[in-house]
Task: inverse folding
């Protein structure tokens, strides 16, 4: 006896009949519209959103605004700065430079670069001299350490700078404060560059450092 119930979707057959059957299963053509451009969401989109996965369908909007170059953001015109430098270095009218542009169109970055480069040059060359002297005197220091010590030891000069503004009219007191600040900075730098085992040689290193800091102070005071 063979039992073969059938309905619209399925047909049950015996194992012997199943060996003679063959065919394919066609799947419905499902297209996913992630952009949801149509009025109704497709089935897959609706399915994800109903179950709390709608965030998977979100697309980040790209920033169409192009970022400006750093020099343009800082309003730095290298060509303009270079032209002004040539106007200053070559002031002869016969060369045909429009030298009035330096006065009529001033900028901040050009003078800053000139001043800073001058200070850095003094700092590097002064530190190089101190480095050579320190090594001759037996100080086990590197050039980088000398740069750091000379730079940090400028702090005493920065500390006394406001005092010089207040008592600038009193020449004797102002001179004493300048000498105190310079000696303070020079002694601090020398004590860091020459170890305790070379205490007797510290005065030999303090003197050139003292002269270097006098020059640094003169850049501020104009003396």
Result:
């Amino acid at each position: 006896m063979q039992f073969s119930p059938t309905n619209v979707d399925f047909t049950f057959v015996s194992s012997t009949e199943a060996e003679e059957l063959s065919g394919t299963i066609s799947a419905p053509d499902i297209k996913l519209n992630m952009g949801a451009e149509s009025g109704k969401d497709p089935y897959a989109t609706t399915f994800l959103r109903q179950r709390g996965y709608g965030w998977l369908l979100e697309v980040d909007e790209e920033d169409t605004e192009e970022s400006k170059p750093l020099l343009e953001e800082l309003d730095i015109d290298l060509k303009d700065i270079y032209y002004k430098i040539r106007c200053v270095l070559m002031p002869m009218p016969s060369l045909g430079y429009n030298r009035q542009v330096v006065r009529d169109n001033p900028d901040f970055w050009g003078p800053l670069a000139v001043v800073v480069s001058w200070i850095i040059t003094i700092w590097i060359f002064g530190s190089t001299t101190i480095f050579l002297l320190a090594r001759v005197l037996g100080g086990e220091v590197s050039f980088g350490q000398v740069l750091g010590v000379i730079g940090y030891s400028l702090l005493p000069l920065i500390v006394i700078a406001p005092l010089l503004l207040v008592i600038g009219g009193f020449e004797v007191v102002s001179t004493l404060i300048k000498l105190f600040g310079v000696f303070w900075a020079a002694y601090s730098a020398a004590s860091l560059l020459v170890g305790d085992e070379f205490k007797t040689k510290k005065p030999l290193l303090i003197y050139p450092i003292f002269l270097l800091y006098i020059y640094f102070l003169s850049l501020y005071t104009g003396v």
Summary: Residues 109-221 form one domain. Residues 12 and 18 are 9 Å apart (CA to CA). Confidence is low (pLDDT under 50) at residues 30-40. DSSP finds ten helices and no strands in the chain.
